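User: I'm putting together a teaching handout on how sequence relates to shape, and I'd like one worked example. Could you take Cyanate lyase C-terminal domain-containing protein from Cyclotella atomus, show the sequence you're using, and then write out its predicted structure as tokens right after it?

Assistant: Happy to. First the sequence, then the structure tokens directly below it.
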Amino acid sequence: MMLVRSTNGVSRCLLSSQLIPSLRGYSSVNVTEQAERTKRVLDAKVQANLSYDSLASKLGVTNTYAAQLILGQAKLTPDIAAKLQAALPTLSDKDVQDMQSNFPMRTFNSEILKEPNVYRTYEAITHYGEAIKTIINEQCGDGIMSAIDFYCDVGTTTGKSGEKRVVITFNGKFLPHIVQKVEDNTAKSPRD
């Protein structure tokens, strides 16, 4: 819905009608309000001089979840809201309230795939996707990794030649596919 860029520690949100997808139930006002709120929250993060790792530590969440909260891609819960206000003291009560009361639009604009970090992550997942699926099926059975009951953490390590290397950990609950037996279906049939 928006592109967020940081230049010399100053965050800003760029909105363009060409970049904002048509979202059912989301008016351009909602998208604009969310973009403006995201900018204010990012500004509060910059003013607090916090990295996503340090913010995550204060909130008790992973660094990627902290980023999702800041970018409006996760709903702020009351227990984390108090911690967020303590960590970002310039954040307004209204923005904190809105972050708790609005349901996030968990989607992405396909334009984001043109951003090199996002594209390379996507490329790695698609390149290794078949191997990942095969290993998951071998070790767990017929099913998938949940993206809902899911944790993601991003960090770095040092390689054997002293180079900095990026480490992304996906930790999702395994969801087995089921046989859809009539006797197990508790919903009334639409044919009744």
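A couple of points you could highlight for students: The first strand starts at residue 3 and ends at 7. The two ends are 42 Å apart (CA to CA).
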